[in-house]
Amino acid sequence: MQRFYCLLSTLCLSFSVFAQHNHNGAATTDSWQVIHAGQLLSVPGETPHNRQSIIVHNDRIVRVDDGYTDPASLDADNVELIDLSQQFVLPGLIDAHDHITAMPGRVKRIWDTTASDSMRALYGAHYAKLTLEAGFTSVRNIGSIGESIYALRDAIRLGLIPGPRLQAAGNYLSVTGGHGDRATGFRWDLFEPLEHDGICDGADDCRKAVRKLIRKGSDWIKVMATGGVNSEAQTGIGQHFTDEELKAIVDTAHSLGRKVAAHAHAAGGVNAALRAGVDSIEHGAFIDDESIRLFRETGTPLVATLSVGDHVLQIANDPDSGMSEGVRVKAREAIPTMMDNVGRAYRAGVTIVFGTDSGEPEHGRNADEFLFLVQIGMTEMDAIKAATVNAAEMMGVADSVGTIEAGKTADIIAVNSSPLNDISTLQHVGFVMQSGRIVKSGAH
How far apart are CA 166 and CA 156, in angstroms? Predict the structure, then answer.
């Protein structure tokens, strides 16, 4: 009960803070800000520069100046100076694989059968605030139970509550009895209502499922192309959907202006999804030489989710964790291989995009993923690029976020020292600005 009251208190505070903004989330008064950045990484992948000024008007970046611009030099009233002259400044981060309405921990089966859609939305609002304050100003929420994710996405977009701007996928597409079929492992006579409209078999059925999800509001379609680790489905981690079904899913989604993300572990399923034309591969534990060839040929990115792998493996190796033996076996098989193969893909030139699978790991700890990316051999710069430039391009929003440049949305964060020297600095973001609003200001 105490936890619920804390959640309501957080939401009430959030509403009071955001009440001063209009329905688009922008400040209701004309505002100018000059940010003095000690070091600025304006475009991840390029060299950072010292002593820079970022000029912000309302929610947009007007320009970036060399040196520290005097606010009085702007032809505007009430210009705010934000002093980050002792900070390292970079674009707002993007988590491209999140489940922001999911409760972390080993209570998922209880959560699935007790939490209402309304309660998921409330918890999602709480988790969204934690994620934003960690420096993640945009998120691709790649699969959620029910329809609460759409309400959460729209409430954030309207400026009613704080959170990263969301691209949302609804229910997962899954074969009957596959990874993503929530009724699997329960007594069918009691839990048949857990079956959802993402379950499909056969090309025609899958086309209809895609259309239904888009009708409900899905920005992305998430397809379980193979089996998965952290579910009770005892159907392996090989390819689940047929080649024909995958092609029908992709073609239907694309014809209606949506992209497709494929959860895929086994190489056969990864390769089938790539040949079908999916827009991202999630996890990719058992990719092979053919996978890498297809990644490079198609330009499709691999969304690494290494922190969730480490998290699940720790639980699998704890005999008292409550994890079922079936899941334990799959975790020990897939996760160490996934760590090796993401590093292999990176070295082969595959585009890596940052994703955490938060909702299994704790929300607000998204930056832990950076440590694993560096551990498998990525440079600090490339790890940051995966969470900014690469993620923005994959999500189709590179014209507005991912870099600090004139005309783009003012999503800006700051840390105490250079993450190019120590990537763990990004676990302690002190300053967060989203769309020109200061969300967190501990760094100045």
Answer: 8
